[in-house]
Specification:
6-stranded parallel sheet, TIM Barrel, 12 strands, alpha/beta, 4-stranded antiparallel sheet, about 400 residues
Length: about 400
């Protein structure tokens, strides 16, 4: 089987010839490229070429947001509006005067509307670049006072979202049979999570949710057509699998919050995609213990970047027991396991050996490193896992 066939087999609940091994290498690759410390034989390779050289599957879930078509791509990231060539859609602003200013590593965007103006800013620090980060840090949020909620609502209700499949198809051809290219719909599962995730400082968001919930609900309603259009385009796209939402945490997106503000959106996406023979994936890289029953209820197909103990409280076995074969896990190996300064060699080997002994082709798992192979990961440890995964 090809790696793409193995991934699809696991998602569909079928047994592959071996479990796929698809680590997310882009952060490690960028950091090592920037510092000039890529080993000989790996230099001057593209990320896809690097994966093939190392004998691992080509990761195609979260897009590499440093691969841009123009300088204006991703300037709207502080609004949670993405632009990258492999996305299956393009977002255009209507009746909004958008002005971009750059000051060194900081990008400032002013959005002027008939209801007023808001400003965002995002910055790249040296530390972020050295770590191989793919998106900037939001240094100024759009919503800073109550009236900004109305301006944000105007912006989102005046977005035009159009399908754009050409870049996705080119990237899919680049990965070929060595990976599965997932269509990225949104970083957030719902408008309310979107507001919390980027539009407001999180403390002010929770104050507003408690003191003036109608203002949050009104903005979420204005954002709903944007999310409906993303879902429509994802369902019509050539992708077999779609990513919606992620970065859940059972303290922040706690069970009551998840049930009220996220569950329905995931259910609706899953239902629509399943009608088209497609699969829903969501990015579950946080503390998941109290959310596991809700994940099963949500009906999605893949819990991607699932991070187990020792970085979270749940072992992989506990997650698999909770899922009872109904959800495929993509991940399962905590990123610190590859870092010698965090985990001694003997502990690394015994833990990895135990993981592979307890999982065979009947397991619904796509091996990966959660959330990613970090800049300080050891290549020998990555290759040790590769030998186990491919033997």
């Amino acid at each position: 089987m090809t790696e793409r066939e193995r991934i699809l087999a696991v998602i569909q609940g079928r047994a592959p010839d071996r479990l796929p091994w698809v680590p997310r290498l882009e952060f490690w690759y960028r950091a090592k490229s920037r510092s000039g410390t890529l080993p000989p034989g790996l230099r001057d390779l593209s990320l896809v070429e690097l994966a093939r050289k190392l004998g691992v599957g080509c990761y195609g879930v979260v897009p590499d947001f440093t691969e841009l078509a123009s300088d204006d791509d991703m300037v709207d990231y502080p609004l949670g509006i993405l632009s990258q060539p492999s996305l299956v859609y393009k977002v255009r602003f209507e009746n909004v005067d958008r002005r971009v200013t750059r000051r060194g590593n900081e990008t400032i965007v002013d959005y002027h509307t008939p209801l007023g103006s808001v400003r965002t800013a995002a910055i790249w620090t040296d530390e972020m670049q050295e770590a191989g980060a793919s998106v900037p840090w939001i240094s100024e949020r759009a919503v800073k006072q109550p009236r900004d909620l109305d301006v944000a609502g105007y912006i989102f209700s005046h977005l035009r979202v159009e399908p754009r499949f050409e870049g996705y198809l080119r990237k899919r051809d680049e990965l070929g049979d060595d990976g599965l290219l997932v269509a990225h719909s949104s970083d957030f599962a719902s408008p309310v999570q979107h507001i919390m995730g980027v539009l407001m400082p999180i403390d002010e968001y929770f104050y507003a949710l408690k003191d003036a919930p109608e203002s949050i609900e009104r903005l979420a309603e204005q954002m709903e057509p944007f999310y409906a259009r993303l879902k429509e385009i994802a369902a019509d796209s050539p992708a077999e699998c779609v990513l919606l939402g992620g970065n859940y945490d059972d303290a922040i997106t706690h069970p009551a919050f998840f049930r009220k503000h996220i569950l329905r959106s995931l259910c609706d996406y899953a239902t629509e995609l399943h009608k088209r023979g497609k699969y829903l994936l969501t990015h579950t890289d946080g503390e998941n213990r109290r959310l596991l029953p809700l994940y099963v209820e949500a009906g999605f197909d893949v819990a991607e970047s699932l991070c187990p103990h020792p970085m979270t409280s749940c072992t992989l076995e506990e997650v698999q027991a909770a899922f009872a074969g109904r959800i495929a896990v993509w991940g399962g190996i905590a990123s610190i396991m590859l870092c010698p300064d965090s985990v001694p060699e003997e502990q690394f080997r015994s833990s990895i050996d135990a993981l592979f002994r307890s999982n065979n082709t009947s397991s619904r798992i796509i091996w990966g490193v959660s959330d990613m192979v970090t800049a300080d990961a050891d290549l020998d440890r990555l290759q040790y896992i590769t030998r186990l995964a491919t033997s």
